[in-house]
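Q: Predict the bound structure with iron/sulfur cluster.
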Amino acid sequence: MSKPRLATCSLTGCFGCHMSLLDIDERLLELMDLADLDRSPFDDKKEFDRMVDVGFIEGGCSNESNIYELREFRNHCRILVAVGACAVNGGVPAMRNVYTLRECLERVFISANTIEGGGLIPNDPDLPLLLDRVYPAHEVVKIDYFLPGCPPSADTIWIGLKALLAGQAPALPYQALKYE
Ligand code: SF4
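A: Predicted complex:
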């Protein structure tokens, strides 16, 4: 019997949630027994060529490329999981949402103390178009499950992935959702 397939992506985040997945340590061997890895930064597979069972979304959407990738995941993943604060509610990148995009760009590229004499706002057409604000994943596509935390602990990710790959809803213990 074929194994369930797992895909992962990192949108606007810091890759910390993927690092937390790697922190499951020796359970990575068990994960490899439970699932086949599909599109993911871990194997550098860039395109889907079939449906997969579980999609792991790190990060929110700050540019048009994020929106495209997230929709690709929604279209190819039976179960889609928002992993970590950035995917769940925008997280740290969404701190820019209290400013307009123009204010952010001018602060970073023109008036920042680190730029002598002012710079230019990049406008190369190859750069992904920035969105007016950072959107959490659920504001762009339907999300089936949320794993909170910044990042969610390795144990939280393991509990969630193991259940989902077995076709069950994750049941996180209180300790996995307690932050102090
Ligand atoms: S939730 Fe935290 S660890 Fe995960 S991508 Fe965002 S900032 Fe990084």
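A: The radius of gyration is 18 Å.
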